[in-house]
Write the structure tokens for this entry.
Amino acid sequence: MKSTARQILTLPVIVIAMGYFVDIYDLILFGVVRVQSLSELGLTKEEITTWGSMILNAQMAGMLLGGILWGMLGDKKGRLSVLFASIILYSVANFLNAFVTNVEQYAILRFIAGIGLAGELGAGVTLVAEILPKDKRGYGIMVIASFGVLGVVAANIVVSIFDWRSAYIIGGVLGFALLFLRLKVKESMMFNEHKDSNIKKGDFLSLFRDKELFLKYIKAIIVGMPIWYVVGVLVIFSPEFAKALEISDKITAGEALMYCYIGLSVGDLASGYISQKLKSRKQAYGIFMALSILTIAFYLSLSDASSTLFYFALFLLGVFCGYWALFITMAAEQFGTNIRATVAITVPNFVRGSVIPITSSFILLKDSYGVLGSAIIVGVVVFAISFWALYTTKETFHKDLDYIEV
């Protein structure tokens, strides 16, 4: 009998983990090189802020569109079709990013890269969930996510050594290199069994026509929102929080993101492991959400703290909102084979999109309640509806995934 490690560390798991690593590297790279790259293109400080926001929004718009496109393709043509096509698209876009001469080209290429980046993790999670034994699939997805988020650390290291154009070239080359490894990965047998049937596959609109499917789908999105509240508000705006807490040391968003994402890697390992030991996705998820609230309270109480303690708090925020893999696993396990990729790919991208209303609410309330008060109000609302969604979601740990949605 194969050992647990040998059952989990199969070629698909290793290759998909490496793909997610490159995906995260490329996803976060613009945020790391934003000031450097836009300054070199001749923009003023005000223009860097304005165009930086526009380019980030272009990437996000691409991911929202790509989530739907890749999700439908993954159910109609196969999980591997997405893993190949998406990495080709975002690798080409990132490689070409190194040669832009104006911000319009930059925005267009980030939009295209966003479309490509949307497909990687959801398709990978779907494939691994379908090929591993049901009592081991949580471990496989845990490995993928915990290794993948270290792409943020890699992006920071690369940018500290190379200029921004070289950093984009490296991202593109890494993506192309992975294509050769993916040639040896096989398609899911569950998908192949239904491939030639007359069952309707990848019907995105079916998630909105059927009341039961719609409620499951919406709740699958809502439970992931606290993760992007933490990253999109508490981490991205960490310099503003440091100022509000009267921390005298300089705090940068780049370092804050790096410490948070190192924590996310630890958290993805821990939450996945705990869910396997408890044999419950919901219990593990609830534990980490509760611990996340305690860590947020600690973070918001660090008045006049040192930068070391502040960055440690950001690391803890990452650890206890490090249930991204668990979140996507739960989403994939709730739906049948003919719609599973559509859900697993669109859900994380819609959760990423939720950062728009979350951050907008934070900015809107900030003038009246201050940075800390606004963060608390938004956080209470986000966590309250997420706990409701989790409580009303069915347990999926022992669920057999070889079925279809009629």
Summary: The chain is about 80% helix and 0% strand. Residues 12-182 form a domain with the Growth Hormone; Chain: A; fold (CATH 1.20.1250.20). The chain has a mean pLDDT of 88. The chain has two domains: 12-182, 204-337+354-394.
